[in-house]
Design a protein that fits this description.
197 residues; alpha+beta; two-stranded antiparallel sheet; two-stranded antiparallel ribbon; 9 helices; 28% helix
């Protein structure tokens, strides 16, 4: 997305990093891959250091960015123990070409240079589900508002999902003893948990 030269000098732009870990014999090591995105911490260190309040906690518990408020101090990136925030060094978006305007998702904010970027857990899907539920005067169907990665991981539980509330489904489908949270000893209380295979 940013080009070889920008990656070479450490200016890569990504919202989901894949960390690779190796184990076993050096001649034939076994690779393990771990996706690393924003953990949406309950006690988020990035929220506490933002001087303009561009990093906020939503009522849904997400760690959100107010992009038009961000002034790019990069304090949040320095304070994030997961190192998942990226600074938008260059203007990667082309605002002028008419044909490119049509390919953008109208529900997602197009950011300019000089702001921090991070995974949003596809907050536009949550907003869309809220609007639809409000129009139809019904509670929010959690399956519609769930991020794509989360939906894919729990497809095998779809029958169970239709018969339970969101909180009960989590309690029954995810044994807390099996789930691990990254860097839990730092007391960031991440909302994203990893399940063993």
């Amino acid at each position: 997305m940013v080009g070889k030269q920008q990656v070479r000098i450490g200016r890569n732009m990504q919202w989901l990093r894949i960390d690779t870990y190796f184990e076993g014999d050096l001649a034939a090591p076994r690779a393990h891959f771990q996706p690393m995105a924003c953990q949406h911490c309950e006690n988020a260190p990035c929220e506490q250091v933002c001087p303009v309040g561009a990093t906020v906690h939503t009522p849904e518990g997400l760690n959100a960015m107010v992009y038009n408020r961000c002034v790019g101090t990069r304090y949040c990136s320095n304070n994030c123990p997961y190192k998942v925030r990226r600074f938008n060094f260059l203007l990667y978006s082309d605002f002028e070409t008419e044909s490119l305007k049509l390919m953008r998702n109208p529900d997602v904010t197009v950011r300019s240079r000089g702001v921090m970027e991070k995974c949003t857990y596809c907050v536009q899907r949550i907003s869309s589900a809220k609007i639809e539920a409000d129009k139809e005067n019904r509670p929010i169907a959690t399956e519609r508002s769930r991020p794509p990665a989360s939906r894919h991981a729990r497809r095998r539980q779809s029958a169970l999902a239709t018969s339970m509330t969101s909180r009960a489904r989590w309690r029954n489908c995810r044994p807390m003893s099996a789930a691990t949270r990254l860097l839990a000893d730092l007391n960031t209380r991440p909302r994203t948990s990893m399940w063993p295979r």
